Amino acid sequence: MLTCSCCNQAYPETEPRWRCRCGAYLLLQSDRMFTRDALSGRPLTLWRYREALGIERDDSIVSLGEGFTPLVADALFGQPVLLKLDQLNPTGSFKDRGSTVMISKLKEWGVPEIVEDSSGNAGASVAAYARRAGIAARIFVPASTSAGKTAQIRMHGADLVRVDGSREETTRAALAAASQTFYASHNWSPYFVAGLKTLAYEICEQQDWQAPDWVVAPVGGGSLVLGLYLGFADLVRAGIIARMPRIAAVQAAVCAPVYEAWRQRLHEVPEVDKRETAAEGIAIARPVKGESILKALCESGGVALTVSEEEIWATAHLLAEKGIYVEPTSAAAPAAVRQLVEQGLVGTGSRVVVELTGMGLKATDKFLAHLGG
């Protein structure tokens, strides 16, 4: 069942829908859940958790083997951490977790064509899975989007539309197109969020079903943080883990609406004026799911943090020295570990998982500009 996040109106999962009639976003509500015993012998992809993902037929599943990315022990700023290398998903970002489930549902619904808007990674991911499913895709991106991402979108055969202006203007252009074509938005789809819950499942399974103390992740539109929260909540409710980890949501200081709402103890996330940031993937002036992001942070005992442009670039260099090449957006979360240490929120005995979201090759033009040639 699909349930409205605002008015609680319920809709069947059999009809194509991306938002409630009242205009609010929808969430997938289901009592179905996998058991630990049922996982034995299943392939090491996120589809091992398929009971929780809302897909009815096996022949609807559109997969590239996504999920079960490495969880690597390391240290950042003197703090032992576990780096979740989600940049190693098939199209080079964590967005594949949401795309595989969303596109599978669209295939199950028989949707022939879609529009999507993105800062790059989600567009590339949706383009890949839509092409594999035989669904025509039109992807709207800001004209400033990294060349590596736009080339990937075009190579997957999607119709790429570059929009002069901000990320928010790109969304408006896509919504105008969506008056005629289904809006397969990663920021709106309840099935995209369902796919991101698998990150929580995986982290716990890779640690012998022990929940970490903290999970540190970047936040822009909010689907990642919300997916983590809902996934951990599923595991607690099923008695698979004993407690909810604390979630640290990280934003670039020059575009930090979630942080500002958290700092001011607001219940909703107001729109902010933003400046250009290397972390293009989280530069969202007002996330659609703002209220739910704040709820997830509150109920997990988490925090919102910001990092400067200098910290983002310095941490990208630090990770590269460890052999891990991520785009600037992906460096935001590990950069914030320093603050968790300095504020005494973590210590040597804390189990801290840091989500790495996107591959460095996505932002080759930005790295070349940063390096000076």
Q: What's the CATH class of the largest domain, please?
A: Alpha Beta
CATH architecture of the largest domain: 3-Layer(aba) Sandwich
Helix content range: 25-40%
Largest β sheet strand count, sense and barrel closure: 6 strands, mixed
Quaternary structure: single chain
Write up this protein.
By secondary structure, the chain is an alpha/beta fold. It folds into 3 domains: 1-30, no CATH class; 71-93 and 189-371, Rossmann fold; 96-183, 3-Layer(aba) Sandwich (Rossmann fold). 35% of the residues lie in helices and 17% in strands. The chain is built from 12 helices and 13 strands. It has a 6-stranded mixed β-sheet with strand order 4-5-13-10-11-12, with helices on both faces. Strands 8-7-6-9 form a 4-stranded parallel β-sheet, with helices on both faces. Strand 4 (71-76) and strand 5 form a beta hairpin. Helix 1 (96-109) runs parallel beside helix 2 (121-133) and helix 6 packs across helix 8 (290-299). It is globular, with a radius of gyration of 19 Å.
Give a brief outline of the structure.
This protein is an alpha/beta fold and 373 residues long. Helix content is 35%, strand content 17%.
Task: Describe the SSE topology.
Blueprint: E1 2-4, E2 10-11, E3 26-28, E4 71-76, E5 79-85, H1 96-109, E6 113-117, H2 121-133, E7 136-142, H3 147-155, E8 159-163, H4 167-177, E9 182-183, H5 190-206, E10 214-218, H6 223-237, E11 246-252, H7 257-263, H8 290-299, E12 303-307, H9 309-321, H10 328-335, H11 337-342, E13 352-356, H12 364-371
